[in-house]
Write the structure tokens for this entry.
Amino acid sequence: MNLEHFKNKLAALKAETLDVLEKSKDTSKPVELDQTMVGRLSRMDAMQQQEMALATRRRREQLLIQIEQAFQRIESGDYGYCIKCDEEIAEKRLELDPVILTCVQCAGKTED
């Protein structure tokens, strides 16, 4: 397995995620509750959009944690091995999701 390739892939994913987080700061600001500016339904829509933006932001922050953990697994020599059965994760699977923790077989078992 080419660990340098996955380090670069993880670094690019981290940079992209940080960039998106930086650009999306404004979408999670508190909703203005001034009724003279916005009607009740518009405020409700704005609040719903804010909650969706916050949920998306939390997922991206979680992704950053997963990326850092993947870097730690690379350093410790555990990257690319399933955390459940310790078998090697298929390289194609890692290409699709470089922070994945389980092989296909173990991922299928948890979905049952």
